[in-house]
Amino acid sequence: MLEEDARYGHHPRRGERVMVEFSQPNTHKALHVGHLRGTILGDVVCRILDAAGYDVIRANYLGDIGWHVMKWLWNYLKFHNGEEPPEEDKTRWMGQIYVEATKRLEEHPEWEAEVRELFRRWDQGDPELRALWEKTRQWSIEGFEQIYRLLNVPFDRVYYESEVEEPGKRLVETLIERGIAVDQRPEGPVIVPLDRLLGLEKETYRTYVVLRSDGTSLYSTKDLALAIQKFEEYPDLARSIYVVDVRQTLYLKQIFKTLEVMGYPWADRLYHLAFEVVTLPGNVVLKTREGEVVLLKELLEEAVRRARALVEEKNPSLAPEVKDRVAHAVALGSLKYTMLAREVNRKVTFEWERALDFQGVAAPYIQYAHVRANSILRRAGGQIPDPVTPTHELHATEVDLISQMALLPDKVLQAAREFKPLVLTNHAYELARAFNDFYNTCPVLQAEEPIRSFRLRLVAAARQALANVLALLNIEAPEVM
RNA sequence: GCCCCAGUAGCUCAACUGGACAGAGCAGCGGCCUUCUAAGCCGCGGGUUGCAGGUUCGAGUCCUGCCUGGGGCGCCA
Q: Is residue A151 a contact partner of residue A43, using CB atoms and an 8 Å limit?
């Protein structure tokens, strides 16, 4: 295990490729805590699949077109023309303009005609408007990148709604020609009557609407085209996973079924990883439109602030830069851990006090165990002794620690099989708990040889196992705290 | 009306996929720093796993029916 070091817990490459699409924010809007769950979940599922030996493509899909964008552009042109977002927080600024647009249109419904007109101009490819759209979209993207960097969440492939709109519309035409879709325009939309096509008596897939009656595209129009594009780009995908909230379950079933009806052999490789939403106390759903949200950036900053105060209290002797780093690790780690340490089909109610609670079963507990292990090794001079066969009767806590460490590879496989980071958050806690038990019962540095050497190796292995499991959860393992 | 999800200790959640006395953390009370970092450790109290049946040697877990809460169901994303 020590020989494998950072690879311990990882499995041989399988030569199988999987794609995980997650996060999927809309440009021209803010990111709030609601986005955090899907983003963290998707990221960690990628890490787990990679450790299990899959080649993972991390995909994002940006909602860069549609009504919300037009409303934003309208408000910008009418009331903010020429303004630019502040460097520090572009996302918030973008979100504010959007929220303001919504409010203005509610107060003055007569202005909606202007938005419609703008949409028409955009649709016809007005170069000036297109240029503004691209420029402002870029601001959003830069803001997102800032937050993804903070969370340490990278992407390999970014898709845009705008690039699959035309292919989607063409696809709908094909569906009509092939008799899969029914064109009811202009009285009604274009639909795929899935239950009827499949001869199902009972309502199952219902009716899938793929194009508005006025011919404009829907999310569904674009998602069909996107699914196809993914397999054109990567024909060997063993799985195409969609990390999307549970409210869209029926919708995703409809997409998958329609693709199956169309005869795509890979339709059964599509998988919806559904997760329950994050709400505010009182079951209040977060709505970017109303602005009644906890902004992601604010949450992250507040978490770091509180963690920093705590570091100051717990370990005042650390250098200021180190305190900053520890605060960052603890704050981000805590938020990630609480988001992951919950069954995906259970809701998360966001409460400030709870989200920023660093006590108990939480990231700092595991990080602290890592710090303790590191501390022993540092005092031992950083040298890990050569292997020794234990001559003493092992203490129960030593046995427990060893068996916990040995479980990691299996836990990784289980987590990958079930797309379930919870398996690893639980295991990380067990590992840390086992180390703390050992720490409290077995002296290391003061033990007699060869027990000392044996335990030192055990501590080194434990530190490695803790670091590895934290890495899988995308949580930093600090050296001190 | 049809479908999906949840219901476990006062609160927030686990439970290695059907296995041993259902476990943690918060909150409450009481202890442990002249020994490797006390963000830690030990102890105490607290449960008819929503209800009623069924399958099984064995059910929080599987089946049926209810109850409560949440969500989804042709032109939102």
A: yes
Per residue in A130-148, pLDDT (tens digit) is 999 999 999 999 999 999 9
CATH superfamily entry for domain A299-472: Isoleucyl-tRNA Synthetase; Domain 1 (1.10.730.10)
| DSSP β-bridge partners for residue A61 | A159
**How many percent of chain A have pLDDT more than 70?**
98
CATH number belonging to the domain at A5-160+218-285, selected among 3.70.10.10, 3.30.160.20, 3.40.50.620, 3.30.1050.10: 3.40.50.620
User: What number is the ipTM of this complex?
Assistant: 0.94
User: Which residues 363-422 in chain A have a CB closer than 7 A to strand B?
Assistant: 364-365, 368, 371-372, 375-376, 379, 414, 418, 420, 422
CA of A185 to C1' of B35 (A): 82
DSSP secondary structure letters along A359-403: SSSSHHHHHHHHHHHHHHHHHTTSPPPPP----SPPPHHHHHHHH
- This model's pTM is above 0.80: yes
Instruction: Give residues 137-196 of chain A lying near strand B (Cβ < 7 A).
Output: 161, 187-189, 191
In the predicted model, what is the mean pLDDT of residues A256-260? 97
